[in-house]
Every structure is written in C-alpha cells, then in structure tokens.
From TrEMBL, chain B:
Organism listed in the record: Actinomadura darangshiensis
Residues annotated as domain ABC transmembrane type-1: 18-201
GO biological process terms held by the UniProt record: glycine betaine transport; transmembrane transport
Entry's family note: Belongs to the binding-protein-dependent transport system permease family.
InterPro entries recorded: ABC_transp_perm/SBD, MetI-like, MetI-like_sf
Keyword entries, A-Z: Membrane, Transmembrane, Transmembrane helix, Transport
CDD domains linked: TM_PBP2 (cd06261)
GO cellular component, one term: plasma membrane
Protein name per its UniProtKB record: ABC transporter permease
Pfam short name (any one): BPD_transp_1
Amino acid sequence: MTVTAVPERTRPSEEAAGRSLAGLLVTPVFLIIVSAALYLYVRGLDLDAIERRSVNQTVIVDQFIRHIKLVAVSTALVLAIAIPLGVLLTRPGLRRLSAPFLALANVGQAVPSIGVLVLLAVTVGIGFQKAVIALILVSALPVLRNTMVGLRSVDRSLIDAGRGIGLSKTAVLFRVELPLAVPVILASVRVAVILNVGSATLAAFTNAGGLGDLINTGISLNRTPILLTGSVLTAVLAMAADWLIGIVEYVLRPRGI
Amino acid sequence: MSFTEYLSERWPTIVRMMAEHAEVVLIAVAIAAVAGIGLGMAVEGRPRAKGLALGVTGTMLTVPSLALFGLLIPLFGLGLTPTITALALYAVFPILRNTITGLESVPSAVEEAARGMGMGRLSRTLRIRLPLAWPVVLTGVRVATIMTVAIAAIAAAVAGPGLGELIFGGLARIGGANALNDTLAGTLGVAVLALLLDVLFVVLSRLTTSRGLR
C-alpha cells in the first residue's frame, strides 16, 4: 500500500524549520510594518455602520484573545497527550504498535481540518470546547509522528552505551534519549502551534470565534475592510507564533547538536 | 438515510465534485511546479538567493489558508482565481525545496564529466542534473499535491469548487437530514482523492524516471 510512502513532511509547519539568526531578526520588523500599514489603511477609511460593528477595538481585541486561547488550550492539551504517547510507543514493549500509528498519522494527513471541525460540529455540537476537541484531533497525529520519528532516530549505540555504563532504562530515556530528541520535540511544538493557529481560523465556522470570524464576516457581507483586518491579523499572528518558536528553538537547542 | 444509501444515491454528484477538486489542485500544482522548478534551477548554487527564495516561500506556508484566501479576494474576487492562486502559492515551497536538494545532490564527478564533454551550464542542468534529480523533484510535487488537496477543501468558503462544497453544505444544514452524510462524504472524499493522487504519482515517478536510476 502506498500509504506509508506518503513523505515524512507534508504539513506546512514542518517545512519551515531551521532559520538563521538574521532571518529571526527580519520577521518582527516585517510584521510591525505590515500591522502599521493595516492600521493606517483602516484609519484612513470612512467606515460605514456595518463595518464599524466589526472593525473596532473591542471586537478585534476580543477575537484576537479568543484565537490565542483556542491555540494555547489545544496546543497544551495536544502536547500533553501526544508527546508522552510518542515516548510510550517507542518503548521496546510497545514498539510493535508504532508502525500502525505511523501509518495512521500518514493517512490522517490527507484528512482536511475543516472536515474534522464540521464533522464534530454536526455530531457533537458547536462552540469553543468542541472546536478545541477538533483542533486536538487535527494536530495530535502530526505531533505524535514527529515525536516518534525523533526518538527512533536517536543512535542505538548511544542507548547501548548508556545501558553499558549502568544506567537504568528510565535513566537512559531521561538522560540520553529525551535530551537528544529535544530539537525534534521542539519541532513538534512548532507543528502543533502552526496547525492550531490555522485550524483555529476555521473554528469560526463552527461558532468558536477567533479572527476567522472577521474574515467570514468580511466575505459574507462583501466588506473589504473587515476581510483585510481579519486576514492580515491572522497572518501576522501565525508568523509571529512561528517566529517566537524559532527563538525558543534557538535558545533551547542543546549545545552539542 | 444511512451513509451507504446516501452514497449509492449521490455518487454521481460526489464523483463530479471530486473531479472538480482534482482539477483545481492539479492546475495549481502544475503552475507551482513550473515556478518551483524554474526558481530552483535559478537559485541553486547561490546561497543568498537560495536562502531568500526558501525563506519567503516557507513563510508563505505559515499563513493560515483562510487568511490567504481572504487576502486574495480583494485582488481577484471570489471563485476559481483566488482558489488556484492560493493553492499554487502554498505548493511552491515543497517543489522548490526538493528541486534544490535534488540538483545539489548530483555528484560533482558527474558534472565534471559533463563539463569535460563541453556542455554549458544550462545544458548540464537540463540534460544531466535535472534528470538525475527528477525522483526527488517529483517527490516534492507529490508532497505539494497531497498538501493542496486538503487545503482546497477550504476553497468553498470563497465560492471555489470541489468537495469543500459538501463539507460547508453539511455545516449550513446542521441538524438537517443529510448534514452528517454530506460532511462525511466531503471529508472522506478529500482523503480518498489524496490517496488516489499519491498512487498516481508513484506510477508517474516510475514512468518518468530515467532508466538508469530505477
């Protein structure tokens, strides 16, 4: 079956790993310029009553915070579920189970996040909590796969060496395997955050709010100022999140690697 | 109506939407392939240009799809044009990255030999290095395709064609008789289409890879 032949890196966020320090400095400047341009554009407009209802400080700040809440809650839960599960599935006793999970993760990539969100909305209901569940379903498999692939790529001889100097299996996990897998686990965090920022935009379709709400309102009412405010802010938020994780990766990466 | 009954009744519509979905994706990927391979050939071997090209197209991928569609509406209106543009923009990065990786992984001895035969830079790239890099390039195209199939489902939000119509239709008729069936058909349809296209690329890769590399 070709399922396993689906290449390792298919999700957007996994592609963007590894930037130079110079690249890390360009991004915030760019994002500030874009945000300032948006502000000046909206300020210069003579908004009508409908546009004022969406493009005002209260609504924008509310939706921005709601978006970040969606991302933060779902990312925290995904990491809490997927990373320990990935560690478990790469232990010798459960290693037999890891192949089916990897295959499942590969097939799962082909399932669109909007489909998962709407399926959940249709079967379970709409709103913030249901959207969080959908976001977890969407991002759990990529994070799980990333963790498993990372732990499996740790050199066997290092594990054997650890065992050889008298460390227990648990000690090898915490003192050899996990530290060596830190870059991979950080990449998992990035995957989770970027996927969730994107899917959270779609959560607006199922009444969970967020910046996607502004985009949808803009599309359905055919109001460009609302549409642009929502789209630009969402893009800025996503790039800022990616940038922040880039910084964290740069700082936390073990010196030896 | 059970899902099987639904499928046996609606399959012509579903297949038509799947075909539309595939059409949009393949057009976008074709555009992205021309752009990505061309750009890859232009920037490989030049670290600065390469870093810039990969940086810009890679950052593109972090932009949520609904936001990108939203940004394109003021330029192109609703429908097919913003859909194909957005999908093509997303699809460039994997193709570009793999083109560069593929071209750079060609052994320098091979290139020396070609140079020794009197071939110029362009003909070395087109006749020697690109055929050798082809399996890697094609993998990039395949990754791009599978990624775009899933993203294209969101195109229905900007009145684009494809299986997304079923998903958004199900959402609009929430609580209605066929809401779940529509959504399920749309979602599974996208996954099935992705797997079909994946198989297509495996076949294509076998057919177009230079015989010496198989």
